[in-house]
Design brief:
Layout lengths: L3 H4 L2 E4 L1 H10 L4 H14 L1 E2 L5 H11 L7 E5 L2 E10 L2 E11 L2 H15 L1
Parallel strand pairs: 1-5
Antiparallel strand pairs: 2-3, 3-4, 4-5
Length: 116
C-alpha cells in the first residue's frame, strides 16, 4: 500500500552505510541498496510498533543529536534519515545494525499477528 508521498522518495546510501552493510550483511553495493528499498517498503517501521519493541527503536533513533528513522528488515535494522534534495525527499541510509534476537522475536510475532 503506497501513497503518493512514498513514491516521491529517492534512495541513497552513505559511504558509512555501504561499509557497514558490507561488514554486517556481507552484500555488495547494489544489493545493499535493494535491501534498503525493501526495508522502507516492507519492513517494520518505528511508528508501527508498541511496547518493548517501540522503546528499543526509539532509543536507537534518538541516539544522535538529530532523530533518525529506523526500519527492521531481514534480521537487520536500517537507520536512515530523510533529507530534501532539490525539492525531493531523499532517504539516506546511515548504517545497518544486526537485530538482537529478543527484538527479532518481537518483530516476528508482530508480523504474524498482521497476517491473521
Amino acid at each position: 500500500m503506497k501513497n503518493s508521498k512514498e513514491a516521491e522518495i529517492n534512495l541513497k546510501v552513505s559511504i558509512h552505510g555501504y561499509k557497514r552493510g558490507k561488514e554486517r550483511i556481507g552484500l555488495p553495493k547494489r544489493a545493499i541498496l535493494k535491501q534498503f528499498k525493501l526495508a522502507i517498503e516492507k519492513g517494520v517501521h518505528q511508528g508501527e510498533t508498541t511496547g518493548k519493541l517501540r522503546k528499543y527503536l526509539d532509543a536507537l533513533s534518538l541516539h544522535e543529536e538529530q532523530a533518525h528513522k529506523v526500519s527492521a528488515w531481514n534480521n537487520h535494522l536500517f537507520v536512515y534519515t530523510i533529507q530534501k534534495v532539490e525539492q525531493v525527499d531523499t532517504a539516506v541510509l546511515i548504517t545497518v545494525l544486526p537485530l538482537p534476537p529478543y527484538i527479532a522475536r518481537l518483530i516476528h510475532y508482530k508480523k504474524k499477528g498482521e497476517r491473521q
